[in-house]
Amino acid sequence: MDVINAMQPDIWASLPDEVPSWVTHKRNKQSVERTLNWLDSCISLKKDGMESGLGCIVGGNSVEERGFCAQEVAKRDVSGFCLSGFGLGESAEERGLLLEAIMKNLPDEKARQISGLDLPEEVLQAVSAGIDVFDSTYPHSLTMSGLAMVFPLDMEECLSGRTSENANDVGSDFTKINLRAVAYRNDTSPILESCRCYTCSKHTKAYINHLLNTHEMLAQTLLDIHNTHHYMNFFQAIRNAIQGGYFADFKAWFASRRQAVNEGILVSSAA
Amino acid sequence: MALQFEVLARFNRARASRLTLPHSQCETPLFMPVGTQGTIKGLTSTQLEDIGCQIILGNTYHLALRPGADLIDELGGLHSFMNWPRSLLTDSGGFQMVSLLHLADITEEGVTFQSPVDGKPMLLTPEESIAIQNKIGADIIMALDDVVKTTTTGPRVEEAMHRTLRWIKRCINAHKRPTEQNLFGIVQGGLDPQLRDTCVKGMVALDLPGYAIGGLAGGEEKDSFWRVVAQCTAGLPEDKPRYVMGVGFPLDIVVCSALGADMYDCVYPTRTARFGTALVPEGVLKLKHASMAADFRPLDETCSCMVCKRYTRSYLHSLVTKEAMGSQLVSYHNVAYMMKLSRDLHHSILEGRFPEFVQGFLRKQFPQGDVPEWVCNAMEVAGIDISMCCAPLK
Prior knowledge:
The complex is a heterodimer of chains A (about 270) and B (about 400).
Chain A: H1 2-7, H2 25-45, E1 54-57, H3 63-75, E2 80-83, H4 92-103, E3 111-115, H5 120-129, E4 133-135, H6 138-144, E5 147-149, H7 155-159, E6 176-178, H8 198-202, H9 205-213, H10 217-243, H11 247-265
Parallel strand pairs in A: 1-2, 2-3, 3-4
Antiparallel strand pairs in A: 5-6
Helix pairs in contact in A: 2-3, 3-4, 4-5, 5-11, 6-10, 9-10, 10-11
Chain B: E1 4-11, E2 14-20, E3 25-28, E4 30-33, H1 45-51, E5 55-59, H2 60-65, H3 69-74, H4 78-82, E6 87-91, H5 96-99, E7 104-106, E8 111-114, E9 121-124, H6 126-136, E10 140-142, H7 155-174, E11 182-187, H8 193-204, E12 210-213, H9 222-235, E13 242-244, H10 250-258, E14 263-266, H11 268-274, E15 277-280, E16 283-286, H12 306-310, H13 313-319, H14 324-350, H15 354-365, H16 373-382
Parallel strand pairs in B: 4-14, 5-6, 6-10, 10-11, 11-12, 12-13, 13-14
Antiparallel strand pairs in B: 1-2, 2-3, 7-8, 8-9, 15-16
InterPro entries (chain B): TGT, TGT-like_sf, tRNA_ribo_trans-like
Main location (chain B): cytoplasm
Keywords (chain B): Cytoplasm, Glycosyltransferase, Metal-binding, Transferase, tRNA processing, Zinc
C-alpha cells in the first residue's frame, strides 16, 4: 500500500495470494483466507482521499471457494472486483463454472475486472459471464513474435462475403499473420485493408517484413500500434454488439470461425 | 542536375542557402539523420516530419543486402518502400570500406565485401554502386570513393585519392537518372593539402551538382580536421552545396558552417541516444547518471520538442538502456536538437547575426571559457571574433 499510496492511481487492486489451478485443496483454502486478510489490511492502509480499490477474488479451481471468496469480498468496502488466478491452467469449461460461481455473488452495480485472459474467445466468454474490464499483454506478445492481429471484427461484412481471407502461410490463421514470412517480402498491402491505424495507413507488409529481418526497433513500434489498435477495436465491436442486442450472435460467429480453423483448414499456431 | 542551390545570405565564408531537391525544399546549413537500413532507429516517418527533417540517409551497402536493390526498385524506390515523402540521400558503400575493412578487399575494379549477414562475397564497383543507387531512387547519390582511414599515412592515401578521381568518372558514366538524382563527388586526399588540392580541382572540373568532403571524422586531430575542411570549402564552387560527411558533433557543425560547409550527416545523435546521452546546449546530459534519478526538469528547458514538453530527466533515466522507449524518446529529442541547430545556423546567417549566434553557442558549451584551441584557430580563419568567449591566456 506504500507503493499504491505513492503512485496515486485512479484504480488499484488489493494484493491477492494467487495460486494456480493444480494446488491442493488446503493450499487453495489458505489462499482465500489470506487474500481476505490482505484485502482488509489494504483497505485500512489506504491513504485518506484515495478511491476504494478493487477487491481480489481467488479460489483456484474450486467452485465452492470461488463462491465463498466472492461473497466475502462483496461485503467489504470495495469499488469493484478483480478476478484473480485465471489463465493459469483451467480449461474453458472449468472457467465458465468458476465465473458463474463468482458472478452470482457479486452486486450488479460494481465493476468486475479480470487478469490473465487474452485470446478473443476467452474475452468473449468472460464478457458473457459479466466481466467489464480486462488487462492483457496479448497485443504486445504478438508483436514480440512478429505477428499482427487480423481477425475480422465486422460480423455483417464478413457474413456477406465482402471481406477476403488472409491466411496463406506458416504460423498464420485467421486471427493473426506472421510478418516474418517470406511471402510478405514484396507485399505492398497494409496489414489489414480495413484498419485505420497509423501502421496500416502508412506502411506495407513488405516494409515491416524488412524491419523484422533487419532487427530494427521500428518493427515493434509499428506492430504494437496496429495490434493495440485492433484489440481496442475488438472491444468496441463487443460493446456495439451488446448495445445492439446481438452479442450472442457475435460470440457464436466468432467461435464458429475458430472451429473451422480447428477442423483442419490450417495449422493454427499456439496462441 | 536535379537540384537548385541558392545562397540567400553570407557571413564571410558561412552561407545560408536554399536547396531544392526533387522531393523537398531545404534550408542549409542542415543536418541529415542516418537511417542506414531504411529506418531511423525507433522513429516513425511522421515523427521525423514533425521534427523537421528534410533529408535522411540510407546506406547502399546495407540496403543492397537487405531487402535488396531489385526489391526496392520493384516496390517503387526507397521513398515508397519506407513511405518517406521528403528527400533521401544514399551513401555509396564507400564508408563500409573503412568500417568493414576486415571484410573488404579493394582493387581498381571495386571493393569485394564479405557479407556480414551470410558470408557471401559482394563486389561493389562504381558501376554497381550507382546501379543500386539508381534503383533505390534517392534525391542525392554519392560516388563510390576509395576511402582510407584518416589515420592512415603513406602512399595508400595518394593511391586512394587518384582512384577516387578515376572512379567518379566511372560513376558519372554509369548514372542512368541524372535528371532525377544528383550525383555528388567526394573529395579525398587524407590530411595532405597537396592531395586534397589535386582532388578538389579534379572534382570541380567535372561540374557535378554538389560536392562532399570525405575521409574525415575518423579520429584525426581536430586541428587537422578543420584545416582540411577550410581548404576544401575554399576550393569548391560557391554556387554548389558542400557536404562534410560523418559530422557530427554540434561544435564541429558550427565550425564547419563558419568555414563554408552546408550539409552534414552522422549517426552520433541517434546512437548516443541509445546509450542514454541527450544533446543539450551545454553539451551532453548523461541520463544514466545517478543524479538524473531525481531531476524533474525536462532534458532542455529551451527545447520545444515533444519529449521536452512531456517528460522529465528522471523518467528518462529510468528508461534509458533498459526500455526501447528510452532510446526512442532520447533519439527524438536529439534529432530535434540537431534540426534546431540547423535552423539556428541558417537563420542567424540569414538575419545577419551569425557571429552572435556562434558566441552564444560557445559560451553555453564552454562556460569556463576553455574553448579548444582548434576552434579558436578555425574561427580566426572564418573571420569570427570569439575572444569574449575564451578565458584570458595565463
